[in-house]
Amino acid sequence: MIIKEATFIKSAVKPDQYTDPLYPELAFAGRSNVGKSSLINTLLNRKKLVKTSSKPGCTQLINFFMLNNELSIVDLPGYGYAKVSKKVRAQWGPMVERYLKIRETLRAMVLLIDMRREPGKEEFGLIDWFEANRVPYIIVLTKADKLSKTKQQVRIKAIAESLGMEKETLIPFSSKTRLGRDRVWKELNAFLTP
Ligand SMILES: Nc1nc2c(ncn2[C@@H]2O[C@H](COP(=O)(O)OP(=O)(O)O)[C@@H](O)[C@H]2O)c(=O)[nH]1
Ligand SMILES: [Mg+2]
Q1: Which of 9-23, 48-62, 118-132 bottoms out in mean pLDDT, i.e. has the lowest?
Q2: Exposed/middle/buried for 126, CB within 10 Å: 0-12, 13-18, 19+?
């Protein structure tokens, strides 16, 4: 994908606030602070199109971006941040589920997991949901640069085992070194070309 133009369109909570479903769409999900905004910026070759933060848990909105007037990119709200209120936490599930359920232009999901963490109930829940609803998805393991090559292999194997997947399907990624960027695009492109 040659990135000519990438722009923020709008934030939404409810379906009537979503952008018109006119373009194929990719959506990104993951725990707060997993590196989701950084990954989207890396994919789009932008330094700060999507705001990154060292203070997790702030964004509870669905953010729509547009790429080259041909592809819609969606940054879903992060989950699992302990310090947000119970009310905010209770809103996350229905907000994301509603998006996944009704968004007919959604072509694939990108689920981000911090390579240093064990997948939790939210990740298992999302994967079950993707499988049950036949939503194509890829899993990206973020912040690979924080581990040595050897440790990366250990973590990839452990996460693959706990997810019950082949380790080759998991994509190690770093927005710092851009490791994995080309592979993520390659796999996403496969869902975009009919
Ligand atoms: N070392 C390293 N830090 C990262 C990476 N990706 C994100 N971060 C840092 O992790 C924090 C959260 O990143 P952000 O992209 O805002 O995460 P989000 O909450 O998932 O959108 C920020 O301080 C980033 O600089 C990465 O690949 N490597
Ligand atoms: Mg973010």
Answers
A1: 48-62
A2: buried
Residue nearest to atom 7 of ligand 1 (CA): 35
Q: Ligand 1 centroid to 65 CA: how many Å?
A: 19
pLDDT tens digits for range 109-153: 999 999 999 999 889 999 999 999 899 999 999 999 999 999 999
CA separation, residue 119 to residues 25, 60, 142 (Å): 25, 21, 12
Domain count, the chain: 1
The protein residue whose alpha carbon is closest to atom 12 in ligand 1 is 33
Measure CA 131 to chain center.
16
Domain membership flag for residue 74: yes
Within a domain: residue 69?
Answer: yes
Domain region containing 92? 6-192
Using the mean position of ligand 1's atoms as its centre, give its distance from the Cα of residue 164 in Å. 26
Ligand 2 centre and the CA of 9: distance in Å? 16
Atom of ligand 1 nearest to the CA of 56: 19
52 pLDDT band (50/70/90 cuts)?
Answer: confident
- Specify the CATH number for the domain of residue 141: 3.40.50.300
Q: Minimal CA–CA distance to 187: which of 43, 3, 34?
A: 43
- On whether residue 1 sits in a domain, the answer given is no
